[in-house]
Amino acid sequence: MTILDTNAITPEAFLLQLWQQNHQAISRTLLASEADPAARQDLKQDIFMALHQSAARLQAAENPRAYLFRIMHNVTVDHIARAQRNKWQPLDEHIQQTLLDDCPSEQVDEQLQNQQLMLAVQKLSLANQQVILLALEDLDAPEIADILQISQGAVRVRLNRAKTELMELMQHG
């Protein structure tokens, strides 16, 4: 990931560049966190607003990508808690199927595997889901610990549990 000289651009421009560089990771997090397309769009907007409010701090952060994931994590946790209080019901698996509808045939197998993985990730406990999503984005244990504000040992334990649970879900799901 290439970041421009942070002193040469505005915090808003820096945020837009960081958003674009991490767009796929953000999309995967949104898809894994929210099944309802309208609620997912609301979550995306909430995340962007939180990032916008923190644009200057993001630009000054030692590790802007980890800071971005921390903000995404916090907004997503709040969103999930709000959804549970309001008892929103996620839609069926139709969303994942629509992702496959427009795929070229040579990508269908990979898309099916990704779909199965995302469905399995959605079934994980929230703690395991959080840590595995960050690990899937190639964040290391210290970065994950910083984002989730837990110890590195706790990250390793959660990762092991999440991987075990994922393997079981993928084999039997």
What does this structure look like?
With 173 residues, the chain is mainly α. The chain contains 10 helices and no strands. The longest helix is centred in the middle third of the chain and has 23 residues, at 64-86. It is globular. The mean pLDDT is 82.
Quick take:
This protein is mostly helical and 173 residues long. The protein has ten helices and no strands. It has helices spanning 11-21, 23-33, 37-53, 55-60, 64-86, 94-101, 108-123, 126-136, 141-148, 152-172.
Q: Strand fraction band?
A: under 5%
Low-confidence stretches: none
Report the principal-axis shape. globular
What structural class do helix, strand and pairing data support?
Answer: mainly alpha
Mean pLDDT: 82
Key features?
173 residues, mainly alpha, 10 helices
Any chance you could write out the topology, listing elements then pairs?
Blueprint: H1 11-21, H2 23-33, H3 37-53, H4 55-60, H5 64-86, H6 94-101, H7 108-123, H8 126-136, H9 141-148, H10 152-172
